[in-house]
TrEMBL record:
Region (Disordered): 590-668
Superkingdom assignment: Eukaryota
Family note: Belongs to the adaptor complexes large subunit family.
Membrane topology (UniProt): Peripheral membrane protein
Lineage of source species: Eukaryota, Metazoa, Echinodermata, Eleutherozoa, Asterozoa
Organism of origin: Patiria miniata (Bat star)
DNA-binding keyword on record: no
Keywords: Cytoplasmic vesicle, Golgi apparatus, Membrane, Protein transport, Transport
Biased composition (Basic and acidic residues): 598-608
Main location: membrane
SMART domains recorded: Alpha_adaptinC2
Pfam families xref list: Adaptin_N, Alpha_adaptinC2
Subcellular location: Cytoplasmic vesicle membrane; Endomembrane system; Golgi apparatus
GO CC list: AP-1 adaptor complex
Protein name: AP-1 complex subunit gamma
């Protein structure tokens, strides 16, 4: 007997492979993960051996088991070719498992899928609809651009089939083809319109999905399909008015899936088009009033209706109806529906403020919801709703929320309450009372910039200094562990300590405080183990300034300051040593040096809508500590070997003495300018203005520098954003351009000609997102033949929802009248995440220097 005959006889005696249900039973019976792996490895070995021996009888069963093993997370790539063999089989059962295996084991990154293109094409031409359906289903899952081009013609033919089962699958394949190869879109346009008239809801649904995909990718196709709005309105009306149909009914609503898809398409077609919007106003009103709200399917339809109404040019009454629907959603017991309502109201609050205001009480109630996501959206919406009319009641509710809020909410809420009060405070007394309430409610979560902002507001409120210092004294006496409160109170006691001990208050009964009591409190704060280094600096500075206010405590103040002459902290040591030298050698100068600070002036003011007191907003939520280092890095970026550094006009805080060391390389500058043409001959005038830095934002006045040995910094003259632009040089007008646009920021350039070779660029940065953009910094560089000057920007915070803007003037001189090019470097922070990007602006108008 030959070896081959012996092998065949042995194989004929082998038992049939295990069935799928038996394999599942064995796997589930495994007690440990190791037992499960043993069962699977044994079965995989049997399957591999069967594939190797070309066992056609049980190939289908083995591939089915392999797919189940793959779904458990075990590798099964060796079964790909076996799937192709099953697809090529004439039997339907084999094709079914083969196409399922191809869908699970293959994707467009595998080269193997090219081998099944011919089999799929043949199956698309098969007489049996189910085999055609298998081929279309697999194609819709794994097709690549190459396969799309090869089989797009067959899919387009199947769209014209009389079989609804085939047409709806072909339409979904068309969606996949358009996503992979958008240029093939045109071949589907003639066939898809007829699908809307089909009586089968599945065909209508897939047709709407296909049209939506085409309209979202091509503005020309969108204009073409606006003609079908009446057809869509008719279909939607039939769905609403039709009676009960068991085939399409879902919880008492007729085919909600088709209704949602049609509403989504109507929103796309009606956006920015008055005629289409008018055609769908009536049907949207019917959907909004006739849809059942007790079931989730009805809420889904109403939500899509609201989105459609708010996106198109709908009537004002219809928009109010949409807002009222969202108000009803806020009363729903389902947390997901409440979250969706808050999220949508946050998007539309700027365009329909009055309608949203009617639901203010319901929104405020959401602050008490235990769900963190709902509370976060409710807080954001509450701040968006605040105006001059409701600021008292809304801030009161937000302070109640602040008292009980989780730590993750305290910083955001306190910072926004402070900035909101700056814009809408009805009077100074209420403003100061609210700020002190925030200090005690948020505790150590109050951001540092909010402390500086509050000190500045206190400085400006000269008539309330006595009241403020007494209230802060009482608050600090109750709790010295809250660092922001300790810092503000220490500053006020240092500046207005004479008012504290004098008790000259008209509004309230004066609190009798002696000099020793005030110094005892400051001494307990500076010696507290919970005091931060910054707080100790504030307190020491206050103690030193009090020496010019208190007449009977000079010796005690000297003793309190003496220990810090040997402090390890250089700031504390410097202040103490300087004070000792001042008292010892120049005591006659002490009253003048330590006199009360004048009211701090606000620089770079920007007007804010709703500011009742005519005050400007200095809203800077939580600047990250890396900002000053970036400013220092900017100086290094400007330096070039062998050339003096241009005057950057950069004002860094002298609290900690910093020196800008020359950079050893201009790598960052080269990176910023590497794509500009700098190879031309240098002009006779001073040739190169490498990078005009933005003067830093004027930091809040640091009270620690009152005794500083540094020479006082001369303030740079602030650039008037309209200065020099009034008397424009006559010439052709220069159109504005969009210089930078990303999902977070949009920066536009407007132009004003100052002279034939000098143009002022007015930069305007807006923020379309829901979160404020902070630490905004724009830098620019131009070729050697240009001269560039960046003026001080209006701020570094870009408000959300396009509710405000940061502006900045850039002056460009172009003696040689060359085409304008600019490289930029952009830095900003969103929700604590700092982003940087750089690029080139090359779309300047040709008429800029003509």
């Amino acid at each position: 007997m030959s070896v081959l005959q012996a092998l065949e006889e042995k194989l004929s005696k082998m038992p049939a492979p295990m069935r799928l249900k038996d394999l599942i039973r064995n796997i589930r019976a495994a007690r440990t993960a190791a037992d499960e792996r043993a069962v699977i490895q044994k079965e995989l070995a049997i399957i591999r051996n069967s594939f190797r021996e070309e066992d056609n009888t049980y190939r289908c069963r083995n591939v089915a088991k392999l797919l189940y093993i793959n779904m458990l997370g075990y590798p099964a790539h060796f079964g790909q070719l076996e799937c192709l063999k099953l697809i090529a089989s004439p039997r339907f059962t084999d094709k079914r498992i083969g196409y399922l295996g191809a869908t699970l084991l293959l994707d467009e990154r595998h080269d193997v899928h090219l081998l099944i293109t011919n089999s799929m094409k043949n199956d698309m031409e098969h007489n049996t609809q189910y085999i055609v359906g298998l081929s279309l289903s697999c194609f819709g899952s794994i097709c690549s651009p190459e396969m799309s081009r090869d089989l797009a013609g067959e899919v387009e033919k199947l769209l014209k089939s009389s079989n609804a089962y085939v047409k709806k699958k072909a339409a979904l394949c068309g969606v996949r083809i358009i996503r992979k190869v958008p240029e093939l879109m045109e071949m589907f346009i003639p066939a898809v319109r007829s699908l809307l008239n089909d009586k089968n809801h599945g065909v209508q649904l897939t047709a709407v999905v296909l049209i939506t995909e085409m309209c979202s990718r091509s503005p020309e196709t969108l204009l073409h399909f606006r003609k079908i709005v009446p057809n869509l309105v008719r279909i939607l009306k039939n769905l609403i008015m039709s009676g009960y149909s068991p085939e399409h009914d879902v919880s008492g609503v007729s085919d909600p899936f088709l209704q949602v898809k049609i509403l989504r398409l109507l929103r796309l077609l009606g956006k920015s088009d008055m005629d289409c919007s008018e055609a769908m106003n009536d049907i949207l009103a019917q959907v909004a009033t006739n849809t059942e709200t007790s079931k989730n399917v009805g809420n889904a339809i109403l939500y899509e209706t609201v989105l459609c109404i708010m996106d198109i040019k709908s009537e004002s009454g219809l928009r109010v109806l949409a807002i009222n629907i969202l108000g009803r959603f806020l009363l729903n017991n389902d947390k997901n529906i409440r979250y969706v309502a808050l999220n949508t109201l946050l998007r539309v609050v700027q365009s329909d403020m009055n309608a949203v205001q009617r639901h203010r009480s319901t929104i405020v109630d959401c602050l008490k919801d235990p769900d963190v996501s709902i509370k976060r959206r409710a807080v954001e919406l509450c701040f968006a709703l605040i105006n001059g009319n409701n600021v008292r009641s809304m801030v009161k509710e937000l302070i109640f929320f602040l008292d009980k809020a989780d730590p993750e909410f305290k910083a955001y809420t306190s910072s926004n309450i402070i900035s909101t009060c700056e814009r809408h405070a009805p009077n100074k007394r209420w403003h100061i009372d609210t700020m002190m309430r925030v200090l005690t409610g948020a505790g150590n979560y109050v951001p540092e910039d909010s402390v500086a902002s509050l000190i500045q507001n206190i400085s400006e409120s000269s008539s309330l200094h006595g009241y403020i210092v007494q209230q802060l004294y009482k608050g600090l006496k109750e709790d010295i562990s809250q660092q922001p409160l300790a810092q503000v109170a220490s500053w006020c006691m240092g500046e207005y300590g004479d008012l504290l001990v004098g008790g000259a208050i008209e509004e309230e009964e004066p609190v009798q405080v002696s000099e020793d009591e005030a110094l005892d409190l400051l001494e307990s704060v500076i010696q507290s183990t919970s005091a931060s280094q910054v707080t100790k600096e504030y307190v020491l500075q206050a103690i030193l300034k009090i020496s010019a206010r208190f007449t009977h405590s000079a010796e005690r103040i000297k003793k309190m300051a003496a220990p810090y002459t040997q402090s390890l902290d250089t700031e504390l040591q410097q202040r103490s040593v300087e004070f000792t030298a001042l008292v010892t050698s120049h005591d006659n100068m002490r009253p003048g040096l330590l006199e009360r600070m004048p009211p701090m002036e606000r620089k770079d003011e920007k007007q804010v809508n709703g500011d009742m007191n005519g005050e400007s907003e200095d809203r800077k939520p939580m600047k990250p500590p890396s900002v000053q280092h970036e400013s220092k890095g900017l100086l290094e970026l400007l330096e070039t070997p062998g050339a003096p550094m241009p005057n950057a006009g950069l004002s860094l805080s002298p609290t900690h003495n910093q020196k800008t060391e020359p950079s050893s390389s201009g790598g960052e500058l080269l990176d910023l300018l590497d794509t500009l043409d700098l190879s031309g001959p240098a002009p006779a005038v001073p040739g190169f203005q490498p990078l005009a830095p933005m003067p830093s934002q004027p930091a809040p006045v640091n009270i620690m520098d009152a005794l500083g040995t540094l020479e006082p910094m001369v303030a740079q003259p602030q650039a008037d954003l309209l200065g020099g632009l009034v008397n424009n040089i006559s010439g052709p007008s220069i159109p504005s351009v969009i210089a930078v646009e990303n999902p977070t920021l949009k920066i536009e350039f407007a132009f004003e000609r100052e002279s034939p070779d000098k143009v002022a660029i007015l930069l305007r940065a807006t923020n379309p997102t829901l979160n404020p953009v902070t630490s905004f910094l724009f830098q620019a560089a131009v070729p050697k033949t240009f001269q560039l000057e960046l003026m001080t920007p209006s701020g570094d915070l870009v408000p959300p929802n396009n509710s405000g803007a940061v502006t900045q003037t850039i002056k460009v001189t172009n003696p040689s009248r060359q085409a304008m090019r600019m490289r930029y470097k952009l830095a900003y922070t969103v929700l604590g995440n700092t982003s940087q990007e750089q690029g080139e602006v090359n779309n300047f108008p040709p008429a800029m220097f003509s």
